[in-house]
Amino acid sequence: MRDDYLKEALKVIPDANLLINVVSRRVKQLKRGSRPLVESLEKLSSEDVALREIIDGKISFETGDN
Questions:
Q1: Across residues 39-59, what is the average pLDDT?
Q2: Among candidate residues 46, 48, 45, the one with its CA nearest the CA of residue 5
Q3: Nearest Cα residue to 9 out of 62, 50, 51
Q4: Which of 22, 46, 54, 61 is the most exposed place for a label (fewest CB within 10 A)?
Q5: Phi, psi at residue 28, to the nearest 5°?
Q6: Around 2, how many Cα atoms within 13 Å sit in the side-chain half-sphere?
Q7: Domain edges within the chain
Q8: Rounded CA gap, 51 and 23, in Å?
Q9: Cα distances (angstroms) measured from residue 7 to each of 38, 52, 64
Q10: Is the pLDDT reported for residue 11 higher than 90?
Q11: Is 8 helix (H, G, I), strand (E, B) or coil?
């Protein structure tokens, strides 16, 4: 997992625990065959793809807080 992607993603989802949960869920989807929502010229790990998707605003999430 690239540190620069992690730092950028934390700007979008400042709660580290929530970020880990969102990334983990998306990684599972990617490993089951879901297509990445971002394109890259370099080969990225599933974790880095998930972080890039968060940074680029391609993934939405909801918290249980009302």
A1: 94
A2: 48
A3: 51
A4: 61
A5: -60, -40
A6: 15
A7: 3-55
A8: 7
A9: 18, 11, 24
A10: yes
A11: helix
At 23-34, the pLDDT tens digits run: 999 999 999 999
The Cα–Cα gap between 53 and 21 comes to 14
What pLDDT is attached to residue 5? 97
19 CB neighbour count, 10 Å cutoff: 19
pTM for the full model? 0.90
Total number of residues shown for the chain: 66
Distance between CA 36 and CA 43 in Å, rounded?
A: 12
Four-CA torsion 35, 46, 39, 6, nearest 10 degrees: 140
41 burial class (0-12, 13-18, 19+ CB within 10 angstroms)? exposed
